[in-house]
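Figure 6 in text form: structure in, sequence out.
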Protein backbone atom coordinates (compact mmCIF):
# COMPACT_ATOMS: atom_id res chain seq x y z
CA UNK A 1 0.00 0.00 0.00
CA UNK A 2 2.82 2.39 0.90
CA UNK A 3 4.54 1.56 -2.37
CA UNK A 4 1.36 2.29 -4.31
CA UNK A 5 0.90 5.59 -2.48
CA UNK A 6 4.52 6.52 -3.16
CA UNK A 7 4.04 5.74 -6.86
CA UNK A 8 0.93 7.96 -6.99
CA UNK A 9 2.84 10.80 -5.31
CA UNK A 10 5.66 10.54 -7.83
CA UNK A 11 3.20 10.39 -10.73
CA UNK A 12 1.36 13.50 -9.55
CA UNK A 13 4.62 15.38 -8.94
CA UNK A 14 5.71 14.72 -12.51
CA UNK A 15 3.25 17.34 -13.72
CA UNK A 16 4.73 19.95 -11.38
CA UNK A 17 8.25 18.93 -12.47
CA UNK A 18 7.28 19.32 -16.12
CA UNK A 19 5.86 22.80 -15.54
CA UNK A 20 8.89 23.87 -13.48
CA UNK A 21 11.22 22.51 -16.16
CA UNK A 22 9.46 24.34 -18.98
CA UNK A 23 9.15 27.59 -17.02
CA UNK A 24 12.82 27.57 -16.05
CA UNK A 25 13.76 26.88 -19.70
CA UNK A 26 11.76 29.97 -20.62
CA UNK A 27 13.79 32.01 -18.12
CA UNK A 28 17.07 30.60 -19.44
CA UNK A 29 16.26 31.16 -23.11
CA UNK A 30 14.81 34.59 -22.35
CA UNK A 31 18.23 35.69 -21.02
CA UNK A 32 19.71 35.10 -24.47
CA UNK A 33 17.05 36.75 -26.63
CA UNK A 34 17.78 40.38 -27.50
CA UNK A 35 15.59 42.74 -29.47
CA UNK A 36 17.46 45.96 -30.17
CA UNK A 37 15.61 46.73 -33.38
CA UNK A 38 14.20 50.13 -34.17
CA UNK A 39 12.08 50.42 -37.26
CA UNK A 40 13.28 47.09 -38.65
CA UNK A 41 15.03 44.07 -37.24
CA UNK A 42 18.08 42.34 -38.71
CA UNK A 43 20.33 39.47 -37.67
CA UNK A 44 22.55 42.12 -36.06
CA UNK A 45 19.98 43.81 -33.80
CA UNK A 46 17.63 40.87 -33.06
CA UNK A 47 19.64 37.88 -31.99
CA UNK A 48 20.04 34.87 -29.73
CA UNK A 49 23.36 34.54 -27.89
CA UNK A 50 24.93 31.19 -27.16
CA UNK A 51 24.17 29.29 -23.96
CA UNK A 52 26.91 28.72 -21.40
CA UNK A 53 27.53 26.65 -18.27
CA UNK A 54 25.81 29.23 -16.06
CA UNK A 55 22.54 28.52 -17.80
CA UNK A 56 22.58 24.94 -16.55
CA UNK A 57 22.84 26.20 -12.97
CA UNK A 58 20.11 28.80 -13.53
CA UNK A 59 17.87 26.16 -15.08
CA UNK A 60 18.31 23.82 -12.10
CA UNK A 61 17.92 26.53 -9.43
CA UNK A 62 14.93 28.25 -11.04
CA UNK A 63 13.30 24.91 -11.76
CA UNK A 64 13.73 23.81 -8.15
CA UNK A 65 12.34 27.09 -6.80
CA UNK A 66 9.33 26.99 -9.12
CA UNK A 67 8.65 23.35 -8.25
CA UNK A 68 8.77 24.02 -4.51
CA UNK A 69 6.59 27.10 -4.91
CA UNK A 70 3.80 25.40 -6.82
CA UNK A 71 4.09 22.21 -4.81
CA UNK A 72 3.87 23.65 -1.33
CA UNK A 73 1.87 26.84 -1.80
CA UNK A 74 -1.67 25.86 -0.76
CA UNK A 75 -3.91 24.94 -3.68
CA UNK A 76 -7.11 26.90 -4.16
CA UNK A 77 -9.88 25.22 -2.20
CA UNK A 78 -13.46 25.49 -3.33
CA UNK A 79 -14.69 26.59 0.09
CA UNK A 80 -12.34 29.60 -0.07
CA UNK A 81 -14.18 30.86 -3.13
CA UNK A 82 -17.71 29.45 -3.02
CA UNK A 83 -20.44 29.18 -0.42
CA UNK A 84 -23.97 27.90 -0.86
CA UNK A 85 -25.67 28.26 -4.24
CA UNK A 86 -28.05 31.23 -4.44
CA UNK A 87 -31.51 31.43 -5.97
CA UNK A 88 -33.59 34.43 -6.92
CA UNK A 89 -32.60 38.02 -7.79
CA UNK A 90 -31.08 36.89 -11.10
CA UNK A 91 -31.86 40.20 -12.79
CA UNK A 92 -30.22 42.25 -10.03
CA UNK A 93 -27.09 40.08 -10.02
CA UNK A 94 -26.75 40.83 -13.74
CA UNK A 95 -27.92 44.46 -13.93
CA UNK A 96 -25.67 45.90 -11.19
CA UNK A 97 -22.37 44.54 -12.62
CA UNK A 98 -23.54 45.51 -16.13
CA UNK A 99 -24.24 49.11 -15.12
CA UNK A 100 -20.91 49.43 -13.29
CA UNK A 101 -18.90 47.95 -16.16
CA UNK A 102 -20.76 49.79 -18.93
CA UNK A 103 -20.43 53.12 -17.09
CA UNK A 104 -16.66 52.64 -16.86
CA UNK A 105 -16.48 51.88 -20.60
CA UNK A 106 -18.34 55.01 -21.70
CA UNK A 107 -15.29 57.34 -21.39
CA UNK A 108 -13.33 55.03 -23.73
CA UNK A 109 -16.06 55.15 -26.37
CA UNK A 110 -16.29 58.94 -26.08
CA UNK A 111 -12.50 59.42 -26.16
CA UNK A 112 -11.86 57.21 -29.19
CA UNK A 113 -15.09 57.74 -31.15
CA UNK A 114 -16.04 56.07 -33.50
CA UNK A 115 -13.45 53.35 -32.76
CA UNK A 116 -10.22 52.30 -34.41
CA UNK A 117 -10.07 50.48 -37.75
CA UNK A 118 -7.12 48.10 -38.18
CA UNK A 119 -5.43 47.24 -41.49
CA UNK A 120 -7.03 43.78 -41.75
CA UNK A 121 -10.46 45.17 -40.90
CA UNK A 122 -10.46 47.35 -44.01
CA UNK A 123 -10.54 44.19 -46.15
CA UNK A 124 -13.69 42.93 -44.42
CA UNK A 125 -15.31 46.35 -44.65
CA UNK A 126 -14.57 46.68 -48.37
CA UNK A 127 -16.10 43.26 -49.02
CA UNK A 128 -19.15 44.20 -46.94
CA UNK A 129 -19.54 47.41 -48.98
CA UNK A 130 -19.16 45.57 -52.29
CA UNK A 131 -15.89 47.33 -53.11
CA UNK A 132 -14.04 43.99 -53.15
CA UNK A 133 -15.11 40.42 -53.91
CA UNK A 134 -15.77 38.00 -51.06
CA UNK A 135 -12.70 35.98 -50.07
CA UNK A 136 -11.73 33.83 -47.09
CA UNK A 137 -8.52 35.80 -46.52
CA UNK A 138 -10.35 37.48 -43.66
CA UNK A 139 -12.66 35.24 -41.57
CA UNK A 140 -15.99 34.83 -43.36
CA UNK A 141 -17.97 35.17 -40.13
CA UNK A 142 -16.32 38.51 -39.29
CA UNK A 143 -16.87 39.82 -42.82
CA UNK A 144 -20.56 38.84 -42.70
CA UNK A 145 -20.85 40.63 -39.34
CA UNK A 146 -19.64 43.83 -41.02
CA UNK A 147 -22.11 43.20 -43.83
CA UNK A 148 -24.88 43.06 -41.23
CA UNK A 149 -23.69 46.30 -39.63
CA UNK A 150 -23.70 48.13 -42.97
CA UNK A 151 -27.11 46.66 -43.85
CA UNK A 152 -28.63 47.88 -40.58
CA UNK A 153 -26.82 51.19 -40.02
CA UNK A 154 -25.54 52.12 -43.48
CA UNK A 155 -22.37 54.14 -43.87
CA UNK A 156 -19.10 54.09 -45.82
CA UNK A 157 -15.57 55.46 -45.55
CA UNK A 158 -16.78 58.94 -46.47
CA UNK A 159 -16.37 61.65 -43.77
CA UNK A 160 -19.38 61.76 -41.48
CA UNK A 161 -20.96 58.67 -43.06
CA UNK A 162 -19.92 56.24 -40.34
CA UNK A 163 -23.16 54.54 -39.37
CA UNK A 164 -21.76 50.99 -39.36
CA UNK A 165 -18.65 52.10 -37.44
CA UNK A 166 -20.79 53.73 -34.77
CA UNK A 167 -22.93 50.63 -34.49
CA UNK A 168 -20.03 48.17 -34.43
CA UNK A 169 -18.17 50.08 -31.69
CA UNK A 170 -21.26 50.37 -29.49
CA UNK A 171 -22.36 46.76 -30.02
CA UNK A 172 -18.86 45.34 -29.48
CA UNK A 173 -18.20 47.35 -26.31
CA UNK A 174 -21.64 46.54 -24.95
CA UNK A 175 -21.13 42.86 -25.83
CA UNK A 176 -18.03 42.77 -23.63
CA UNK A 177 -19.92 44.41 -20.76
CA UNK A 178 -22.85 41.98 -21.15
CA UNK A 179 -20.46 39.00 -21.33
CA UNK A 180 -18.73 39.98 -18.10
CA UNK A 181 -21.97 40.82 -16.28
CA UNK A 182 -23.47 37.47 -17.35
CA UNK A 183 -20.40 35.62 -16.13
CA UNK A 184 -20.51 37.41 -12.77
CA UNK A 185 -24.27 36.76 -12.39
CA UNK A 186 -23.64 33.08 -13.15
CA UNK A 187 -20.91 32.95 -10.51
CA UNK A 188 -23.22 34.61 -7.99
CA UNK A 189 -25.83 31.90 -8.58
CA UNK A 190 -23.09 29.32 -8.05
CA UNK A 191 -22.43 30.83 -4.62
CA UNK A 192 -19.22 32.79 -5.18
CA UNK A 193 -18.38 34.92 -2.14
CA UNK A 194 -19.21 38.62 -2.26
CA UNK A 195 -15.59 39.79 -2.05
CA UNK A 196 -14.79 37.99 -5.31
CA UNK A 197 -17.87 39.45 -6.96
CA UNK A 198 -16.64 42.95 -6.09
CA UNK A 199 -13.06 42.22 -7.16
CA UNK A 200 -14.07 40.63 -10.46
CA UNK A 201 -16.50 43.45 -11.27
CA UNK A 202 -13.82 46.05 -10.59
CA UNK A 203 -11.24 44.17 -12.68
CA UNK A 204 -13.60 43.92 -15.65
CA UNK A 205 -14.63 47.55 -15.23
CA UNK A 206 -11.29 49.23 -14.55
CA UNK A 207 -8.61 47.17 -16.32
CA UNK A 208 -8.04 49.23 -19.50
CA UNK A 209 -7.40 46.37 -21.92
CA UNK A 210 -11.04 45.27 -21.81
CA UNK A 211 -12.63 48.56 -22.97
CA UNK A 212 -9.71 49.23 -25.32
CA UNK A 213 -10.64 46.04 -27.15
CA UNK A 214 -14.21 47.24 -27.19
CA UNK A 215 -13.23 50.28 -29.29
CA UNK A 216 -10.61 48.38 -31.34
CA UNK A 217 -12.39 47.32 -34.51
CA UNK A 218 -10.53 44.16 -35.42
CA UNK A 219 -11.55 40.51 -35.64
CA UNK A 220 -9.70 39.56 -32.44
CA UNK A 221 -12.21 41.17 -30.08
CA UNK A 222 -15.13 39.27 -31.60
CA UNK A 223 -13.16 36.02 -31.67
CA UNK A 224 -12.06 36.57 -28.05
CA UNK A 225 -15.72 36.83 -27.00
CA UNK A 226 -16.50 33.63 -28.92
CA UNK A 227 -13.56 31.80 -27.35
CA UNK A 228 -14.69 32.90 -23.87
CA UNK A 229 -18.22 31.62 -24.57
CA UNK A 230 -16.82 28.37 -25.98
CA UNK A 231 -14.61 27.75 -22.94
CA UNK A 232 -17.35 28.78 -20.51
CA UNK A 233 -19.81 26.47 -22.23
CA UNK A 234 -17.34 23.54 -22.06
CA UNK A 235 -17.14 24.14 -18.30
CA UNK A 236 -20.94 24.07 -18.00
CA UNK A 237 -21.24 21.03 -20.27
CA UNK A 238 -18.63 19.25 -18.21
CA UNK A 239 -20.59 20.03 -15.07
CA UNK A 240 -23.86 18.76 -16.55
CA UNK A 241 -22.17 15.50 -17.57
CA UNK A 242 -20.80 15.07 -14.05
CA UNK A 243 -24.25 15.54 -12.50
CA UNK A 244 -26.35 13.59 -15.02
CA UNK A 245 -23.81 11.32 -16.67
CA UNK A 246 -25.29 12.51 -19.96
CA UNK A 247 -25.62 15.60 -22.14
CA UNK A 248 -28.94 17.12 -23.17
CA UNK A 249 -29.88 17.94 -26.75
CA UNK A 250 -29.90 21.68 -25.99
CA UNK A 251 -26.28 21.62 -24.84
CA UNK A 252 -25.32 19.41 -27.76
CA UNK A 253 -26.75 22.04 -30.14
CA UNK A 254 -24.88 24.81 -28.27
CA UNK A 255 -21.67 22.77 -28.55
CA UNK A 256 -22.07 22.48 -32.33
CA UNK A 257 -23.02 26.15 -32.85
CA UNK A 258 -20.12 27.48 -30.77
CA UNK A 259 -17.74 25.13 -32.55
CA UNK A 260 -18.93 26.51 -35.90
CA UNK A 261 -18.43 30.09 -34.64
CA UNK A 262 -14.86 29.27 -33.58
CA UNK A 263 -14.17 27.96 -37.10
CA UNK A 264 -15.65 30.84 -39.11
CA UNK A 265 -14.52 33.78 -36.98
CA UNK A 266 -10.81 32.92 -37.08
CA UNK A 267 -8.76 31.43 -39.90
CA UNK A 268 -6.95 29.09 -37.50
CA UNK A 269 -10.25 28.35 -35.75
CA UNK A 270 -10.64 25.01 -37.52
CA UNK A 271 -7.49 23.74 -35.81
CA UNK A 272 -8.61 25.05 -32.42
CA UNK A 273 -11.98 23.35 -32.83
CA UNK A 274 -10.52 20.03 -34.03
CA UNK A 275 -7.98 19.87 -31.18
CA UNK A 276 -10.63 20.75 -28.59
CA UNK A 277 -13.17 18.29 -30.00
CA UNK A 278 -10.71 15.41 -30.06
CA UNK A 279 -9.65 16.00 -26.45
CA UNK A 280 -13.29 16.29 -25.30
CA UNK A 281 -14.18 13.01 -27.02
CA UNK A 282 -11.11 11.29 -25.53
CA UNK A 283 -12.05 12.55 -22.05
CA UNK A 284 -15.36 10.65 -22.22
CA UNK A 285 -14.14 7.50 -23.95
CA UNK A 286 -15.29 5.26 -21.09
CA UNK A 287 -18.92 6.42 -21.37
CA UNK A 288 -20.33 4.81 -24.52
CA UNK A 289 -23.45 7.01 -24.56
CA UNK A 290 -21.46 10.23 -24.28
CA UNK A 291 -18.83 8.95 -26.68
CA UNK A 292 -21.51 8.32 -29.28
CA UNK A 293 -23.24 11.70 -28.84
CA UNK A 294 -20.12 13.86 -28.61
CA UNK A 295 -18.25 11.79 -31.18
CA UNK A 296 -21.01 12.08 -33.81
CA UNK A 297 -21.59 15.78 -33.07
CA UNK A 298 -17.86 16.57 -33.22
CA UNK A 299 -17.17 14.50 -36.33
CA UNK A 300 -20.22 15.89 -38.17
CA UNK A 301 -19.23 19.47 -37.30
CA UNK A 302 -15.62 18.99 -38.37
CA UNK A 303 -16.58 17.33 -41.66
CA UNK A 304 -19.25 19.94 -42.43
CA UNK A 305 -16.87 22.84 -41.71
CA UNK A 306 -14.10 21.31 -43.84
CA UNK A 307 -16.53 20.76 -46.73
CA UNK A 308 -17.72 24.38 -46.51
CA UNK A 309 -14.20 25.79 -46.21
CA UNK A 310 -12.79 23.83 -49.13
CA UNK A 311 -15.12 22.39 -51.84
CA UNK A 312 -17.88 24.96 -51.25
CA UNK A 313 -15.60 28.00 -50.91
CA UNK A 314 -13.55 26.76 -53.89
CA UNK A 315 -16.70 26.56 -55.99
CA UNK A 316 -17.67 30.08 -54.91
CA UNK A 317 -14.10 31.27 -55.62
CA UNK A 318 -13.75 32.54 -52.04
CA UNK A 319 -10.50 30.77 -51.23
CA UNK A 320 -7.18 32.48 -51.81
CA UNK A 321 -3.82 30.80 -51.57
CA UNK A 322 -2.54 31.12 -47.99
CA UNK A 323 0.56 28.94 -48.26
CA UNK A 324 2.87 31.92 -47.69
CA UNK A 325 0.97 33.01 -44.56
CA UNK A 326 0.73 29.48 -43.16
CA UNK A 327 4.45 28.87 -43.75
CA UNK A 328 5.63 32.03 -42.02
CA UNK A 329 7.79 30.16 -39.49
CA UNK A 330 9.52 27.89 -42.07
CA UNK A 331 10.22 30.96 -44.25
CA UNK A 332 11.70 32.79 -41.26
CA UNK A 333 13.83 29.82 -40.24
CA UNK A 334 15.09 29.36 -43.80
CA UNK A 335 15.98 33.05 -44.01
CA UNK A 336 17.83 32.88 -40.70
CA UNK A 337 19.89 29.90 -41.86
CA UNK A 338 20.75 31.67 -45.13
CA UNK A 339 21.61 34.98 -43.46
CA UNK A 340 23.80 33.41 -40.74
CA UNK A 341 25.87 31.22 -43.08
CA UNK A 342 24.22 27.94 -42.19
CA UNK A 343 24.89 24.67 -43.97
CA UNK A 344 23.09 24.96 -47.32
CA UNK A 345 23.77 22.79 -50.39
CA UNK A 346 24.40 24.42 -53.78
CA UNK A 347 21.20 23.10 -55.36
CA UNK A 348 19.21 24.34 -52.34
CA UNK A 349 20.77 27.80 -52.68
CA UNK A 350 19.90 27.84 -56.36
CA UNK A 351 16.26 27.08 -55.60
CA UNK A 352 16.01 29.59 -52.75
CA UNK A 353 17.71 32.30 -54.80
CA UNK A 354 15.14 31.70 -57.52
CA UNK A 355 12.47 32.59 -54.98
CA UNK A 356 14.45 35.70 -54.06
CA UNK A 357 18.10 36.74 -54.66
CA UNK A 358 20.50 36.38 -51.71
CA UNK A 359 20.94 40.12 -51.19
CA UNK A 360 17.17 40.49 -50.88
CA UNK A 361 16.94 37.60 -48.41
CA UNK A 362 19.55 39.34 -46.26
CA UNK A 363 18.06 42.83 -46.55
CA UNK A 364 14.44 41.74 -46.13
CA UNK A 365 14.85 39.25 -43.27
CA UNK A 366 13.55 40.54 -39.96
CA UNK A 367 13.66 37.94 -37.17
CA UNK A 368 10.49 39.44 -35.68
CA UNK A 369 8.16 39.61 -38.69
CA UNK A 370 7.90 37.76 -42.00
CA UNK A 371 6.14 40.59 -43.88
CA UNK A 372 9.37 42.17 -45.18
CA UNK A 373 10.09 38.93 -47.05
CA UNK A 374 6.49 38.30 -48.17
CA UNK A 375 6.08 41.78 -49.62
CA UNK A 376 9.58 42.29 -50.99
CA UNK A 377 9.25 43.11 -54.74
CA UNK A 378 11.92 40.51 -55.51
CA UNK A 379 9.99 37.71 -53.75
CA UNK A 380 8.54 35.52 -56.51
CA UNK A 381 5.19 34.59 -54.96
CA UNK A 382 4.02 32.66 -58.00
CA UNK A 383 7.14 30.50 -58.08
CA UNK A 384 6.92 29.90 -54.33
CA UNK A 385 3.25 28.88 -54.46
CA UNK A 386 3.89 26.56 -57.41
CA UNK A 387 6.83 24.92 -55.64
CA UNK A 388 5.68 24.71 -52.03
CA UNK A 389 6.41 20.99 -51.90
CA UNK A 390 10.01 21.50 -53.04
CA UNK A 391 10.44 24.34 -50.57
CA UNK A 392 9.24 22.16 -47.67
CA UNK A 393 11.66 19.36 -48.62
CA UNK A 394 14.54 21.82 -48.63
CA UNK A 395 13.30 23.37 -45.39
CA UNK A 396 13.26 20.00 -43.60
CA UNK A 397 16.72 19.23 -44.97
CA UNK A 398 18.02 22.60 -43.70
CA UNK A 399 16.49 22.01 -40.26
CA UNK A 400 18.17 18.60 -39.93
CA UNK A 401 21.57 20.06 -40.83
CA UNK A 402 21.12 23.27 -38.81
CA UNK A 403 19.11 22.27 -35.70
CA UNK A 404 20.51 25.00 -33.42
CA UNK A 405 19.88 27.79 -35.94
CA UNK A 406 16.39 26.39 -36.59
CA UNK A 407 15.51 26.58 -32.89
CA UNK A 408 17.04 30.05 -32.51
CA UNK A 409 15.04 31.39 -35.46
CA UNK A 410 11.83 29.90 -34.03
CA UNK A 411 12.45 31.35 -30.56
CA UNK A 412 13.12 34.79 -32.05
CA UNK A 413 10.04 34.64 -34.29
CA UNK A 414 7.75 33.71 -31.37
CA UNK A 415 9.44 35.51 -28.46
CA UNK A 416 6.37 37.57 -27.58
CA UNK A 417 4.29 34.44 -26.94
CA UNK A 418 6.63 32.41 -24.72
CA UNK A 419 8.89 34.94 -22.93
CA UNK A 420 7.11 36.80 -20.11
CA UNK A 421 9.77 39.55 -20.17
CA UNK A 422 9.15 40.49 -23.82
CA UNK A 423 6.37 42.82 -24.93
CA UNK A 424 5.68 45.43 -27.58
CA UNK A 425 3.22 48.10 -28.61
CA UNK A 426 2.74 46.28 -31.93
CA UNK A 427 -0.94 45.32 -32.37
CA UNK A 428 -1.45 45.75 -28.62
CA UNK A 429 -4.57 47.90 -28.94
CA UNK A 430 -6.19 49.76 -31.85
CA UNK A 431 -8.30 52.64 -30.54
CA UNK A 432 -7.47 54.84 -33.56
CA UNK A 433 -7.88 54.05 -37.25
CA UNK A 434 -5.01 53.48 -39.67
CA UNK A 435 -4.42 56.86 -41.38
CA UNK A 436 -5.13 55.81 -44.96
CA UNK A 437 -8.78 54.98 -44.19
CA UNK A 438 -9.47 58.71 -43.91
CA UNK A 439 -11.79 58.10 -40.95
CA UNK A 440 -12.07 61.17 -38.72
CA UNK A 441 -11.95 60.51 -35.01
CA UNK A 442 -13.05 62.78 -32.23
CA UNK A 443 -12.18 62.95 -28.54
CA UNK A 444 -15.60 63.92 -27.25
CA UNK A 445 -14.72 63.25 -23.63
CA UNK A 446 -12.11 66.02 -23.67
CA UNK A 447 -14.45 68.23 -25.71
CA UNK A 448 -17.26 68.03 -23.16
CA UNK A 449 -15.30 67.76 -19.90
CA UNK A 450 -11.99 69.53 -20.58
CA UNK A 451 -10.15 66.50 -19.16
CA UNK A 452 -8.05 64.29 -21.46
CA UNK A 453 -9.05 60.76 -20.52
CA UNK A 454 -6.75 59.41 -23.24
CA UNK A 455 -3.67 60.59 -21.34
CA UNK A 456 -4.86 58.78 -18.22
CA UNK A 457 -5.52 55.36 -19.75
CA UNK A 458 -3.33 55.06 -22.85
CA UNK A 459 -0.69 52.36 -22.20
CA UNK A 460 2.72 53.51 -21.05
CA UNK A 461 3.91 49.95 -20.54
CA UNK A 462 2.85 46.79 -22.31
CA UNK A 463 1.97 43.42 -20.86
CA UNK A 464 3.57 40.35 -22.36
CA UNK A 465 1.07 38.02 -24.03
CA UNK A 466 3.17 35.15 -22.70
CA UNK A 467 2.06 35.87 -19.12
CA UNK A 468 -1.46 34.68 -19.84
CA UNK A 469 -0.28 31.69 -21.85
CA UNK A 470 1.80 30.58 -18.87
CA UNK A 471 -1.20 30.99 -16.54
CA UNK A 472 -3.17 28.65 -18.82
CA UNK A 473 -0.25 26.19 -18.97
CA UNK A 474 0.08 26.26 -15.18
CA UNK A 475 -3.65 25.63 -14.80
CA UNK A 476 -3.36 22.57 -17.04
CA UNK A 477 -0.39 21.04 -15.22
CA UNK A 478 -1.74 21.86 -11.77
CA UNK A 479 -5.13 20.31 -12.54
CA UNK A 480 -3.49 17.17 -13.91
CA UNK A 481 -1.33 16.92 -10.78
CA UNK A 482 -4.46 17.23 -8.61
CA UNK A 483 -6.20 14.48 -10.61
CA UNK A 484 -8.71 16.99 -11.97
CA UNK A 485 -8.12 15.96 -15.56
CA UNK A 486 -11.59 16.86 -16.83
CA UNK A 487 -11.26 20.35 -15.33
CA UNK A 488 -8.60 20.94 -17.98
CA UNK A 489 -11.15 20.79 -20.83
CA UNK A 490 -12.25 24.47 -20.60
CA UNK A 491 -8.57 25.50 -20.82
CA UNK A 492 -7.93 23.53 -24.01
CA UNK A 493 -9.34 26.08 -26.55
CA UNK A 494 -7.01 28.83 -25.28
CA UNK A 495 -4.03 26.47 -25.25
CA UNK A 496 -4.90 25.38 -28.80
CA UNK A 497 -5.00 29.03 -29.89
CA UNK A 498 -1.60 29.65 -28.32
CA UNK A 499 -0.21 26.43 -29.78
CA UNK A 500 -1.22 27.30 -33.33
CA UNK A 501 0.53 30.65 -32.96
CA UNK A 502 3.71 29.00 -31.73
CA UNK A 503 3.66 26.88 -34.89
CA UNK A 504 2.70 29.51 -37.45
CA UNK A 505 3.07 33.02 -35.98
CA UNK A 506 3.74 35.60 -38.72
CA UNK A 507 5.26 38.01 -36.22
CA UNK A 508 6.79 37.87 -32.76
CA UNK A 509 4.58 40.50 -31.12
CA UNK A 510 0.84 40.85 -31.53
CA UNK A 511 -1.18 40.87 -28.33
CA UNK A 512 -4.38 40.84 -30.36
CA UNK A 513 -3.60 37.32 -31.61
CA UNK A 514 -3.80 35.98 -28.05
CA UNK A 515 -6.49 38.31 -26.74
CA UNK A 516 -8.69 35.25 -26.33
CA UNK A 517 -6.07 33.64 -24.08
CA UNK A 518 -6.00 36.78 -21.94
CA UNK A 519 -9.80 37.09 -21.88
CA UNK A 520 -10.29 33.50 -20.66
CA UNK A 521 -8.02 33.93 -17.60
CA UNK A 522 -10.97 33.95 -15.12
CA UNK A 523 -12.04 30.57 -16.51
CA UNK A 524 -8.60 29.06 -15.80
CA UNK A 525 -8.84 30.29 -12.22
CA UNK A 526 -12.38 28.93 -11.95
CA UNK A 527 -11.18 25.51 -13.13
CA UNK A 528 -8.50 25.55 -10.42
CA UNK A 529 -11.00 26.54 -7.73
CA UNK A 530 -13.87 24.27 -8.69
CA UNK A 531 -14.55 20.72 -7.60
CA UNK A 532 -13.15 17.75 -9.43
CA UNK A 533 -15.34 17.16 -12.47
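Output sequence:
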Amino acid sequence: MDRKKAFETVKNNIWYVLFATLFSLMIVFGRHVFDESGDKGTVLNVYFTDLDIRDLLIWIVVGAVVFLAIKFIPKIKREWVFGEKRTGKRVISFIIPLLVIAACYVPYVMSFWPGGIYNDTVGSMEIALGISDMTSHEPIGYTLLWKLMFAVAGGSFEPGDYGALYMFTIVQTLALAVLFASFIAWLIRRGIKLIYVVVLTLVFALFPLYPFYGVSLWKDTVFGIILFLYSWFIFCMNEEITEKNDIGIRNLIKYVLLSVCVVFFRNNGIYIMIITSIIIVLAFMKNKTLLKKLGIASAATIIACLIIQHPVFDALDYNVDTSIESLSVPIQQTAFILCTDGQVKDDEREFLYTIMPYENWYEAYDPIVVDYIKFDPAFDRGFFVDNVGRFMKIYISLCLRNPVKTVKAWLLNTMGYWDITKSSSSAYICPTSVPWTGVFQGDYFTYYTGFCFQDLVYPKHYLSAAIFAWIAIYAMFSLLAQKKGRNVLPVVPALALWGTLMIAAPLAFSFRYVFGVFLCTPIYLLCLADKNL
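Caption detail: Strands lie at 33-35, 46-48, 116-117, 216-217.
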